[in-house]
Every structure is written in C-alpha cells, then in structure tokens.
Specification:
heterodimer, A: 2 domains, B: Rossmann fold, OB fold (Dihydrolipoamide Acetyltransferase, E2P), 20 strands, elongated, MetI-like_sf (chain A), transmembrane helix (chain A), transmembrane (chain A)
C-alpha cells in the first residue's frame, strides 16, 4: 500500500502537557468563599449536630456546664426509651411514630392517586374555565392551616372525625391534592401529547395510551411530588395537635412536642425522638434524589 | 376500500377559526395532498379525520359510513406525526410493533410484520435502539414503519418530511411515491411544500385560513388556479400579477402598457382585472408580437436558470431565462408574453375569470 511521505512522517497531533491555568472558580476556592461557606454550614448544621449529640449523651452530660462537645460517654438508652416503655412493651412514642407512618403514607398515596389524573386532565383537555379552576385550586393553599383549623375542628366534630386517623388523612390529602395537581401539571405539560395521539391511532383507548406511554414518563415527577407531599404530611403539626387528643391516634410531631413542658424535661429522649423523626424523610429524599433532580430538570429531556 | 370524506368541518381554538367548512372527498387508493401555508388548518383537518380533534361542526365518513363520533382506534387509520411521536422509552422494534400489540396480534405475526417493514425501509440495524439514538432521517423511517406495519383504511401523514434536510427530503419523496404505488392504499398527506404536493399528489386540496380554495390534480392547480391566492401560493418563482382592464381588443395596464386581449376572456370593458404571468411564460430572449416594455431590475442566478426581475411601470415581473443571460440594472428591454398561458383574475374578488373559451 502506498503511503505518502507526509502521512508516513506525521507525528500525530501534538500533545500539550501543560496543565490548564488554575482559575479562581476552579478547585482552589478563594479564602473568602471557604470562610463564608464554613460560617453558613456551622449555623445551619449546629442545631442538627447538637440534637444528635444530645440524643446519645447521658442525662448528667446533657445538663453539664460548660457544655461537653466531645468528652462524654455515648449511650443509646434514649433511643431504647423512644421505642420501649419503661415497664416493657411499646412506648407511646413508638405508637405515635406508627401513626405518622400510616397517616403520612396513606394521605400521600391518596393525594397522588387523585392529583395525577387531575393534572393530566387539566393539561390535556379543554376544561371549561381552566385557568379559574386552577387558580381556585391553588387558592386553597393561600391560607395558613392555623386560620382554618377552628372551623375544621367544628366540622370534624359534627362528622365524627375528631381524634381519628381518617380525619388527619383526609385533611392532609386535601392540602396535598392542590399541590400535586399544580406540580404534576407542569410535568404532564412537558410530555408531548402526540405520544397519546399516536397510541390511540395504534388502537389503544385514551386511558390505555396514558397508562402505557405517558405515565412511565411521569414517574420521576410523581416521585418528586410524592416526596414533597410526604414531607408535608410527616411534618404537619397544627392540625395534628388540634384534631387529635389520645395517644393511640396522635402523630409524632405533637407527641414529641408533648414531651416538653412537664416539671422535668427529658431532653435526651426529646433529642432521640427528633432524630428518629427526621431520619425517614432524609432517607426517602436520598433514595429518590435522582428522580428529584430529574424532576426539576425534566424540561431538558430530549423529545 | 379506503375512502375518506369530510363535510363542513368547523373548529375554532379560542378566537382562531382553524377550519371553516372544510369539505374534502378522498378517493380510494389516491395520494391526496392537503397543501397550504402554516396556520391554514391542514393539521387540524388531518387530526379531525383521525378523531383526535373534537369538532364544532361537520362530519367524517370513512368508507361511506359515518365515523364522526368514533374513537381514533375504531377508525382504523394510521398516522405519521410531524415530530414523529416515537415512544421514547421503547425500542424501535417495540415502536413498530405497537399498532399490532394494541390489536392483540400473535407475537410470531408481529415479528414477521416488523421484519418486513424494517426490510422495506432499510432500518434492520436500528431495531434494538431507542428513538433518542436515531438521526432525524432514521426516526422518520421508523415513524413510517409504525404506520405501514398495519393495513389500515388510510394513511394520514402530517408534514412527515418537513424536519429532514433537503437531500433526504428529495429521496423520501421518491420513496413515499414508490411505497404508495406498491401498496395501492389511500394516503392523505399534509404539507406546506408545493414541490411535494405537485410531485407526489394525485389530487391536491389547497387550504387557506381554514377554507378549501381549490381541489384538483397538480396540473389543474398549477395551470388553472381557481383564484389569485392559489396562483400566488403555487409555483416558484411566484406568479407576477399586473393590474389592468380590458378595452376593446386590448388589455390596458394600470401603468399604461397594452397587450392584445386574450381571445378566451369574456370580461367586460373597464372591469378591474389582474393579469397573472408565470415566469416560464415570459421571456427576455425571444422576440414576439406581444411584449411589455420594462427595465432590468435585478438578476437571480439559480444555477440551472436565472430569474430576471423586470420592472414594468411600478410592478416587478419575474422572468425565467437561461443561466447565460446578462444585463445591467436599468437597461431597457422587452418582455415577451405567452398570452395563451396567461391568467386573468377579477381584481375585486380575486377569482379566476371563466376560461371556458380557452
């Protein structure tokens, strides 16, 4: 095979071994940046760290003056007390955690099951006075819960929903459905309607087309929306404390708050309960973090 | 069988009237092109046939029976979408198989049909890929395969070639014509590209602002435009229109020129008219007895030909000439007119004058 002289002697592309110039925005952050970030991190994380520390300190270390940061004896007694009653058997706190799981879980499922099809309908169909309806739905979120809690208390008393898990599930779902509709409508808008059109011409019904071709594309959005709804229901305090009274119905936020305010406060127990309370949300958000990011950046998905 | 007919379709989106009494009759086995500028209601018409659009008024008949209230699935049609609408999470194979799966065909039948389609459209190597891994031309072929995998009543195509580059578009035009001929099926094809319409269609319907302007063969639409607007929309370079009126045996232009009055026109004297002259029916090179005096305005060399812009009075005439033609702007010249091929329109209504005598 003939090789031209030029090709034969060509040394190939010249490699440049000099490292790229370091810019201030690169790996070497400026001192000011590091300092500001450190201050911010300490301010944001100190309460969390202190909560975790308190939860594993013995009671006399909790009250020690000056406060002990590192040289204390680690104990898991408080965590045992969160779940096990002093006389054996499940503690009231563990019951309240279970209540929280049931109430937050069921209300989130309810809000998703109702909200996603509604969002799809608002996105796809010519609904009469669509904008007004959507504004009305959103307006139910304008009012802070504490403003409506008294009327709702009176209504619930008539309906026999006071001090029931169902009552809390319904009110949380009612608060989360509008949020789900609004957030999911954005996600549905991002999915081209032609997929459903094409599927209907293939021979599927409207609902089959939605289920087969649109719904799978919405899963990241549904995950993101459900996490937000779950966090709302899990953290909710005002309705929980007004609408429940007995320990076997009460959810965790009012139950933990109830630990504070006696003659002596077991801060170790409060801190341990708070850690247990914070964990599920953190774990859940961590598990779906990819979906959360995908949800936020759905607009970048190639069509 | 595969006839499609729509009567008096009306549909408005808010204040926009997308279709305003669209009536079309698509014969069995024809390549029927709906041509019009963007916003003319072409896509809405196609979606109405498919059952994807709720109508304000009108009816759709398929194979002679009323299908106005039928679901898209029940209409037994296939459609190629402008953006292809390939299912993004499914492989090419599954995309093509979808219409057969929806109709619960056996998997061996599906495999055979997908293989036949992938051979026909040369997409065998792509079957395991997903739409995001395909080029525009490949996506277009897959979309076509998904439509052709079944033998529906009719195929609906919504500007399927618009998103392709020019070379591929020309190739696919030939390919589509070949497929149409080999299947003998009914195609309803929407486009804003008059070249596609003229080169592929058996029948063309020209649409403007939701109204059908003219239906006919490509030759009829080009040679006998029903009105001034169709004459201007179909044909490139655009037809030149000159204001004039008849006076005895002459046509007198608003700019003072005169031409012999074409024998076939019946227009009474003095009625304001528009004389339509296509670039290929004009010449700056030939000598003839009917000519207009003008001056050279500009030259557009297009390789195989040169379009000469000639100013006659206040109007610009587009004249087709050989690529060797030269001249300097401002130069005086005579434009020879082939009056037998000229068009006359009523300046008020824009409608073509009766050409019964032609």
């Amino acid at each position: 095979m003939a090789v031209s002289a030029h090709e034969a002697v060509s040394p190939g592309p010249v490699r440049d071994h000099t490292p790229p110039a370091r810019r201030s925005g690169g790996r070497g952050r400026s001192v000011l940046e590091v300092a500001l970030l450190t201050v911010l991190a300490v301010v944001m994380l100190f309460p969390v760290l202190w909560m975790i520390e308190t939860s594993i300190k013995e009671n006399r270390d909790v009250y020690a003056i000056p406060a002990k940061f590192f040289d204390f004896k680690v104990t898991l007694d408080h965590f045992r007390d969160v779940f096990v009653a002093s006389g054996g058997g499940p503690s009231t706190l563990s019951v309240s955690f279970l209540n929280s799981v049931v109430v937050a879980g069921v209300s989130t499922v309810l809000a998703t099951v109702l909200g996603v099809p509604a969002a799809w309908a608002y996105s796809r169909f010519g609904v009469k006075a669509k904008k007004d309806q959507l504004f009305f739905i959103l307006s139910t979120r304008f009012m802070p819960p504490v403003v409506v809690v008294i009327p709702i208390f009176l209504m619930y008393r008539q309906a026999g929903l006071i001090n029931t898990q169902l009552g809390l599930i319904l009110i949380y779902a009612a608060f989360n459905v509008p949020f789900t509709i609004w957030m999911m409508k954005g996600f549905v808008d991002e999915v081209p309607p032609e997929y459903e059109d094409a599927a209907m011409l293939d021979g599927y019904t409207r609902l089959q087309a939605f289920r087969r071709y649109t719904l799978p594309l919405l899963l990241p959005g549904i995950a993101a929306t459900a996490v937000f709804a779950l966090i709302f229901s899990w953290n909710e305090f005002v309705f929980a404390i007004f609408l429940t009274s007995s320990d076997n119905v009460r959810t965790a936020p009012p139950a933990i708050a109830g630990l504070i305010g006696g003659t002596t406060v077991d801060w170790g127990l409060v801190a341990a309960a708070s850690v247990v309370f914070a964990l599920p949300v953190l774990v859940f958000a961590y598990l779906v973090r990819k979906h959360l990011v995908a949800g936020v950046t759905l607009g970048a998905v190639r069509r | 069988m595969g006839t499609v007919a729509v009567y008096g379709l009306c549909k408005s989106f808010g204040k926009v009237q997308a279709m305003d009494g669209v009536t079309l009759d698509v014969p069995d086995g024809s390549f029927f092109v709906v041509l019009g500028p963007s916003g003319a209601g072409k896509t809405t018409t196609l979606r109405a046939i498919a059952g994807l659009e709720k109508l304000d008024a009108g009816s759709v008949r398929l194979d002679g029976t009323d299908a106005t209230g039928d679901t898209p699935a029940a209409r037994d049609l296939a459609m190629v979408f402008q953006n292809y609408a390939l299912y993004p999470r499914h492989t090419v194979y599954e995309n093509i198989a979808s219409p057969l799966r929806a109709r619960r065909r056996s998997s061996s039948e599906i495999a055979a049909a997908v293989e036949r389609m992938s051979t026909l459209l040369h997409i065998e190597p792509l079957l395991r890929r997903r739409p995001a891994q395909l080029s525009g031309g490949e996506m277009q072929r897959v979309a076509l395969a998904r439509a052709l995998v079944r033998r529906p009543r009719a195929f609906l195509m919504d500007e399927p070639l618009t998103n392709l580059d020019l070379k591929l578009r020309v190739e696919m035009r030939t390919e589509l014509t070949r497929i149409h001929r080999s299947l003998g099926a009914t195609f309803v094809y929407v486009t804003n590209d008059q070249v596609e319409a003229l080169s592929m269609a058996d029948q063309v319907a020209v649409l403007k602002e939701g109204k059908v302007q003219q239906v006919g063969t490509p030759a009829e639409v080009y040679e006998r435009p029903a009105n001034q607007w169709v004459a201007g929309f179909v044909g490139s370079p655009q037809i030149s229109l000159l204001a004039c009126h008849a006076e005895g045996d002459r046509l007198v232009g608003a700019d003072g020129w005169t031409l012999p009055r074409p024998r076939w026109t019946t227009a009474e004297d003095g009625r304001p008219l528009l004389l339509g002259l296509r670039a290929e029916d004009l010449s700056v090179e030939r000598r003839g007895n009917a000519s207009l005096p003008g001056e050279l305005y500009g030259l557009e060399p297009l390789g195989d030909r040169t379009v000469v812009d000639v100013r006659v009075g206040t109007e610009i005439l587009k004249v087709k000439a050989r690529p060797t033609v030269t001249g300097t702007p401002g130069e005086r010249l005579l434009v020879t007119v082939d009056l037998d091929r000229a068009h006359l329109f009523d300046a008020g209504t824009g409608l073509a004058l009766s050409e019964a005598g032609r």
